[in-house]
Amino acid sequence: MKESKYNIYLKYKDVFVLYNTLYESILMLSDIMYRKLQEIGIEKCFSINENLYDKVVDGNFLIDDGFDELQEVKRIIRQKDFSDDEYHLIINPTLDCNFNCWYCFEQKVRGSYMTPKIQNSCSLLIQNIIKSNANLKKFTLSFFGGEPILYYNRISIPLMKSLYTEIEGKNIEANIHFTTNGYLLNDSVISSMSKFKVKSLQITFDGDREIHNQTRFLKHNTGSYDVIINNIKRILFQTDISIILRINYTHQNIDGFMSLLEEISKFKNLNHIVLSPNQVWQDRKKDDNFDGKINVIYNRAEELGILTKNASSIGRLKHPCYADKKNQACINYNGLVYKCNARNFDEGNALGILNEQGTIIWNEKENIWMDSKLKNQPCKDCIILPICAGGCRRLSFNHIGETYCIYNFDEERKKQAVLEMLLREKV
Fold first, then answer.
1. pTM of the prediction?
2. Which residue in 87, 98, 148, 162 could disulfide with 123, CB within 3.0 to 4.6 Å?
């Protein structure tokens, strides 16, 4: 037998941990045991005691000589990314927005909205997808933008009706989601969302009341914090809709989230809230003090009973981004088609176009997109490949022909990322 190439040794406080990133097996080691394994190698652990050897074999820390682990990783990637039992369709009704957040990556298009002609093509697309996917079990319909609630009645409602019409009598689950700033969620919209069994909303905060209102305000400089807080309260009280609270943090605003957590903790149906901290992409500085503050947020959220979602790339192999998958598309208001909605919706980034018959005509870049994973040699040799997967397809697509690492080839950062994942999962 041979040692798995995905064994990694970690240390937490006074405990050593042997973890396998492919099989997700874990073995706690004493200081003496750790040093002994370092000295003789894990292949000879039977010489220490038989019980340890059995645990090492059972955990696949030792594997058969002929087993190709890289091929197993590739198999999992293909299985997850090319699964045909779910389709995820993202619709941008508009790229206009009632806010003007400084860090938004999108180029706001004032007055933009999906025309009835393109809207009809989207309805036909939903029909075509459901008719042509015999194994379909779940259809996720997400509304993005811009601010999608600007055109909720005109665009979102008809498309939700189209989905329910097409799945009627079929064993297909509808999963409807909105990414919204939360300001326009009045009683009428909330009631309608409940009627259409919307599963979740992602709503963003930028800190406490004062900090949030400095970023998320209306054109006449009216702050939005209190309105959004009250809208969330009504949603939680009146519906079963789950709320993903995305908190956009920077070095300047991170201290303002503690009071926000305290306010959130008083909400009804707290189990319907998931906190998702994300660093603003223009603020990529890292330091120990900053990372410590982020951990304090996670720890305080846990103490208050608030569920959290880690935005790390760790876990992307078995839980890939939706844009990694073949059965996924993002339709912009103008009919251009994309995979990733975390890019500018420029014509040059489009991977296809939606025709009048409700068929996506993909261009050659879509094939490149779907074939871009694991083209990077350092990824193939990396110890954390099974839980990192080289990042998302957008990253691999943008770095075709280049060598790169999302952790800048820093082995200690990789270990720290894995350790933080294990601690959050309470392994």
1. 0.90
2. 162
